[in-house]
User: Fold this.
Amino acid sequence: MLRSFTSKRSLQSLLHHHYRRCRQNPQFPIFNPRPFSSSPGQPSSDAELRKYIGYTLLLLGSAAATYYSFPFSENARDKKAQLFRYAPLPDDLHTVSNWSGTHEVRTRTFLQPESIEELEGIVEEANVRKHKIRPVGSGLSPNGIGLTRAGMVNLALMDKVLSVDEEKKRVTVQAGIRVQQLVDEIEEFGITLQNFASIREQQIGGIVQVGAHGTGARLPPIDEQVISMKLVTPAKGTIEISKEKDPELFYLARCGLGGLGVVAEVTLQCVERQELVEHTFLSNMKDIKKNHKKFLSENKHVKYLYIPYTDAVVVVTCNPMSKDKGPPKNKPKYTAEEALQHVRDLYLESLTKYRDSGSPDEPEIVELSFTELRDKLLAMDPLNKEHVIKVNKAEAEYWRKSEGYRVGWSDEILGFDCGGHQWVSETCFPAGTLSKPSMKDLEYIEELMQLIEKESVPAPAPIEQRWTACSKSRMSPAYSSADDDIFSWVGIIMYLPTMDARQRRQITEEFFHYRHMTQSQLWDQYSAFEHWAKIEVPKDKEELAALQARLKKKFPVDAYNQARKELDPNRILSNNMLEKLFPSSEAV
Assistant:
């Protein structure tokens, strides 16, 4: 069955919301009756005075009755930070937030079809009514690119593996299937996906449409694994596109940001399932420069994790396990408990300094993972540079004692614990070719580190650097017509380890200062463009115009908008973000 969430806020609720807002904001007047008289300068009669006093008392009594008839529930969202915004909400008002906790909308229309026929009906009806149904996946994009309060369609109930071609190692799936579910279901056929992003909860449709990526200079972004796909479009119904069938639209829509049609089915090129050997070790910038070309060319997967205000660089490589040699015999020098001890010590020391409430129970400390400990440490003073430096140094020590090898299947090994709520900005830029790296990727990092120290940014770790081969998808940040081009992806981060609204706002402001600093100093110099799932739309009109002009130089914006006009003339699949990034010529 089709799942639909629609509702209308009652008039009574709206009036209550208005009154609560009045109470909280003195500049928002409730009502100020002005006595009037028959002639200027004459005093009001006693009867008129009593009448208006009565009106005032009636208004205050009604307001008080309304207030106490609709108390806040214990779990009312953000009531501490923005009390005036929260009246009792309809039960069927659907709240959708992204994984990183930075974007949230409430919508009265959230549709979840269970078949392509239901999806086709939804799209057709929405197009007739000109009602928005923006495609949204698992909500993992840090910028909430799939969100809109006008209405959304989600394919979580369309999550089946439709067919497996064992000979060609290809699988056709419904686009709502999550990465981990897909990997688990095709395991019996001895195949898996070519590469993975940091987490496994993405829907296939979403991970493809935003141009997500893993790491490995020989491996392209995940959209390159798509052989064909079915799009349900508002104007042309369901169309199937591939390299052979409408290649121009295929290469445009493969990384189409959900704006050219709802991706309903996808055929993916898989690879043989392999065990990988992961090697993690601590290095420094001098040694990285010396060995960088070798690291890129000799490892199937490689990434660097830089720790600001230290010279530490965590190197993580992953390669297929040798059938002859088997797993490595090396034993780790330290246990997992010993690796965490320095971080735990800093946690206890910081508790005494910042909370003066004694130590927590020992079991609580023991149960915390490294990322949980880091979040708790940062939450104590997230914008204090000296405190952040202590946390970063503790992280470097943790990685030094975590050096060693790990063996597992690719879907187990290639993941990464990203931590909790956070702001992220990730850029992609050319880094030469695999045979001849330009070394611009390391120059970018060196300049970034210098900026952080010069501007005293309280930058936590890690700054993550990964690589991919190029993509042939026209809207991919890693697009290139040259087969041997490689691209570097660099992500900066600030965690939101607290639910205190004021503190989250301060961290947000600091993060956007940090991001703006990298944008103004590095992006143009290195031809860097943000990941589609991490780009943020500027509020300033001049900055927005500059971003639009910049995107037009890199991407085929006119072709993209023309395809949107043909496939979705009423823009029912769009949202505010897409309209601002890619304004139509008529709008301009």
